[in-house]
Specification:
By secondary structure, the chain is of the alpha/beta class. It folds into two domains: 5-133, Four Helix Bundle (Hemerythrin (Met), subunit A) (Up-down Bundle), CATH 1.20.120.420; 143-368, Rossmann fold, CATH 3.40.50.10470. The chain has helices at residues 44-52, 59-76, 80-91, 98-112, 119-156, 180-188, 205-217, 229-234, 260-270, 290-293, 302-305, 355-361, and strands at residues 5-7, 10-12, 15-17, 24-27, 38-41, 160-164, 193-198, 221-224, 240-243, 247-249, 254-257, 274-277, 283-284, 306-310, 316-320, 333-336, 343-346, 349-351. It has a seven-stranded mixed beta sheet. Strands 13-10-11-16 form a four-stranded mixed beta sheet, with helices on one face. Helix 3 packs antiparallel against helix 4 (98-112). It is globular. It starts with a strand and ends in an 8-residue tail after the last helix. The model has no long low-confidence stretch (mean pLDDT 96). Bound molecules: 5-S-methyl-1-O-phosphono-5-thio-D-ribulose (MRU). 5-S-methyl-1-O-phosphono-5-thio-D-ribulose (MRU) binds at residues 57-60, 97, 166, 168, 172-173, 177-178, 205, 244-246, 256-257, 332. The active site is at residue 246. The record marks 166 as: Transition state stabilizer. InterPro entries: IF-2B-related (IPR000649), IF-M1Pi (IPR005251), IF_2B-like_C (IPR042529), Initiation_fac_2B_a/b/d (IPR011559), M1Pi_N (IPR027363), NagB/RpiA_transferase-like (IPR037171).
């Protein structure tokens, strides 16, 4: 299946069902930007491991991969116990992105009404539908967010500088992405724009993945160290910040890659609009206080102490960058309170970051609220 996003001019998607009808192929994101390699996933263990070690990452893509993982599990043990065990295994792979739990609940809910012998086919088809819906949501996010960039370009009559953090592009979803979808939409509409790409230590998703994506599309961009954003904003070099989200509360608090909160603080201080772009599957309607309630994944300290990269001679090396013996901490996400968020760009339009703002776009949630 062809995607809209491109690598070397070739349309590509991050996850594609294989012709054998029992597996999927994914891009191994641990190898980017220096090597483009695919992995085939066909078992529960492979899907859970791919999510855990971040062969696939980004909230929407984690959700789709988990849905396929549940399908694979149904080939191995289609009993109710097998289903419960598979849900638990996949849910534990990464705790913060709520799209994972959302996708598991959707597929598992469907399977509980389904006879065991039909469960694999049913789950595989449902995972495919979740992937297609994600593409449609991201495309719509692109249209709504692209208009924000176009409005700024009209208003300011010059090139628009967008700052983004981590990778919330098509590599983090199935196609298009969330935070980068508006960038792609505006760029394809001929808007003159440039993207400041936060490097995003410790795993460098900005330097490795966002830069790789933008390069693939010819979108003008510059990679900056994580600490540069505040300075750029103070000097009028940023017109708008757009980030993704791993979980957004019913009140509009935005959980995203560690460091996002600091950018939102700098944006507020300098009057730069700060948006989060996310599909409905990223909204956790059960939570009202993101700082207190969202579980923050703590990852291996080795991501902080070591870095891997390409040597000048073309070889690869992992090197230690922290003083030996120093303890490290590695919280992977932080929460930006709704009061610092100018708006939430969703597939239904741009919402104010508040309970009322979200309910205005998702009125069907009013009864539950
Ligand atoms: C469209 S993806 C939104 C988020 O998932 C993204 O901004 C992010 O924080 C990804 O974190 P990662 O740890 O790389 O999975």
């Amino acid at each position: 299946m062809l995607g809209r996003m491109k690598i070397d001019g070739r349309p590509t998607r991050t996850i594609v069902p294989d012709a054998d009808g029992i597996s999927v192929r994914v891009i191994d994101q641990t190898r980017l930007p220096f090597a483009l390699e695919e992995r085939r996933l066909s078992t529960l263990a492979e899907a859970a491991e791919a999510i855990r070690i971040m062969i696939v990452r980004g909230a929407p893509l984690i959700g789709v991969t988990a849905a396929y993982g549940l399908a694979f599990a149904m080939r191995e043990d289609a009993s109710n116990d097998g289903l419960d065990r598979a849900v638990a295994t996949l849910a534990a792979a990464r705790p913060t992105a709520v799209n994972l739990r959302w996708a598991l609940d959707r597929v598992a809910g469907n399977l509980r009404q389904t006879a065991s012998r039909e469960r694999f086919e049913r789950a595989f088809a449902e995972a495919g539908r979740i992937a297609e819906e994600d593409v449609a949501s991201c495309h719509a996010i692109g249209s709504h967010g692209g208009r924000l960039i176009a409005d700024l370009a009209r208003e300011r009559g010059r090139r628009i500088n967008v700052l983004t953090h981590c990778n919330a592009g098509w590599l983090a979803a199935v196609d298009w992405g969330t935070a980068l979808a508006p960038v792609y939409a505006a760029y394809e509409d001929g808007i003159d724009l440039h993207v400041w790409v936060d490097e995003t230590r410790p795993r460098s998703q900005g330097a490795a993945l966002t830069a790789f994506e933008l390069n693939g599309h010819g979108v003008p961009h510059t990679v900056v160290a994580d600490n540069a954003g505040g300075h750029l904003m103070q000097h009028g070099e940023v017109d708008i910040c757009i980030v993704g989200s791993d979980r957004t509360t019913a009140t509009g608090d935005v959980c995203n890659k560690i460091g996002t909160y600091l950018k939102a603080l700098a944006a507020r201080d300098t009057g730069v609009p700060f948006y989060a772009a996310l599909p409905f599957s990223t909204i956790d309607w059960s939570l009202r206080d993101g700082v207190a309630e969202i579980p923050i994944e703590e990852r291996d300290g080795r991501e902080v102490t070591h870095m891997t990269g390409r040597l000048d001679d073309g070889g690869f090396a992992t090197v230690q960058v922290v003083s030996p013996g120093s303890p490290v901490a590695n919280p992977a996400f932080d929460v930006t309170p709704a009061r610092l968020v100018t708006g939430l760009i969703t597939e239904r339009g741009v919402a104010e970051a508040s309970a009322e703002g979200l309910l205005a776009l998702y009125p069907e949630r009013r009864a539950a609220a």
